[in-house]
User: Which sequence fits this backbone?
């Protein structure tokens, strides 16, 4: 069986490794030489998804991942009092890994396998030819910026948060560092995500109109914000920040002709909870199970699997994305209007064991509980 993957991003590499583990040949086509992701971007992987990666995709060395067993949610008006608190005794909630560490692990593993071939697209005619190519049993597009994406997958539900995310890493004194912290500030959420005893990733999402109130949102302004909201770390240095625009996107139709859209092509969500990559992992799990079912029944794998995949995932992905959007908008609205009401609500929820359990399960497994 031969599969064509278009794009060489993190999700495409993860899917490629999953397929190769099933003895499927993968031909990965890409447009530009991709740089190894930089050090400041991190991924939060849910406990359930990490188990899936370790068992079905690739073994991740324990030195590369950092376990989080508590999540504290605060409001910038009072960073000493948690408005929500999630934890599980003696069990990780999720784990943090650097983007570039996971990227290098996957690409190095794939290069060693003779069932994997990476090919640079040198001619734009590739995209028209691939639509009628009989060489591949499946064609899966993971690149949202190529010709196929703009021509055949343009019907999307898009929400522009009119915001920019700033990401950096702070270096600090050694500390027991297993609690993730999210602070909802006037202009957007600020997250502290531990990656070791001496390093913590910081991500701040700020409204663009707030940035315009400054001459520019500089490294100095970002460092000032971190220091104002930091009540935990003795910081030694702060890395230079990186930025990226924030949008959510949901594709209306998952496949067109002989091509299936996948990963960020299907859904991008505001990184409020770091669930974009986790959604893609759950999609990979569903796709893998469909392949296994066909194999067990002795059925050929053809384009009908695209429809089956859409039927099993589309509604769940849409509801999950909408729920994350609601959480973001609620806290954003709450900062201005609902504080007296929401404080009572959060006090109730914080002491409700059933809510805590369901919230943890939602973050861990999405709606596939």
Assistant:
């Amino acid at each position: 069986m031969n599969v064509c993957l278009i794009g060489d991003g993190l999700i495409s590499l993860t899917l490629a490794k999953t397929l190769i583990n099933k003895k499927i040949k993968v031909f990965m086509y890409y447009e530009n030489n991709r740089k190894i992701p930089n050090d400041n971007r991190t991924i939060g992987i849910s406990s359930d998804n990490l188990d899936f990666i370790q068992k079905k995709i690739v073994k991740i060395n324990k030195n590369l991942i950092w376990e989080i067993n508590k999540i504290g949610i605060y409001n910038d008006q009072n960073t000493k009092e948690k408005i929500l608190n999630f934890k599980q005794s003696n069990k990780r909630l999720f784990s943090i890994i650097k983007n570039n560490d996971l990227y290098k692990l996957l690409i190095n593993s794939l290069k060693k396998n003779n069932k994997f071939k990476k090919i640079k697209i040198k001619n734009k005619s590739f995209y028209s030819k691939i639509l009628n190519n009989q060489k591949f049993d499946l064609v899966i597009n993971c690149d949202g910026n190529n010709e196929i994406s703009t021509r055949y997958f343009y019907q999307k539900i898009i929400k522009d948060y009119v915001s920019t995310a700033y990401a950096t890493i702070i270096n600090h004194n050694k500390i027991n560092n297993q609690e993730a912290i999210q602070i909802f500030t006037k202009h957007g959420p600020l997250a502290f995500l531990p990656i070791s005893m001496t390093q913590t990733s910081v991500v701040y999402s700020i409204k663009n109109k707030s940035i315009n109130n400054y001459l520019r949102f500089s490294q100095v302004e970002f460092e000032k914000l971190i220091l104002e909201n930091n009540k935990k770390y003795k910081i030694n240095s702060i890395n230079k920040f990186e930025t990226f625009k924030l949008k959510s996107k949901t594709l209306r139709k998952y496949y067109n002709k002989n091509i299936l859209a996948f990963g960020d092509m299907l859904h991008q969500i505001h990184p409020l909870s770091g669930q974009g990559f986790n959604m893609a992992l759950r999609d990979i799990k569903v796709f893998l199970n469909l392949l296994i079912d066909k194999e067990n029944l002795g059925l050929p794998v053809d384009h009908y699997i695209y429809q089956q995949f859409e039927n099993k995932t589309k509604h769940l992905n849409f509801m999950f994305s909408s729920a994350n959007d609601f959480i973001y908008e609620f806290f954003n609205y709450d900062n201005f209007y609902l504080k007296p009401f929401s404080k009572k609500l959060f006090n109730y929820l914080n002491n409700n064991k059933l809510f805590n359990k369901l919230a943890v399960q939602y973050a861990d497994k999405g709606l596939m509980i």
User: Anything to note?
Assistant: The mean pLDDT is 83. The longest strand covers residues 156-172.
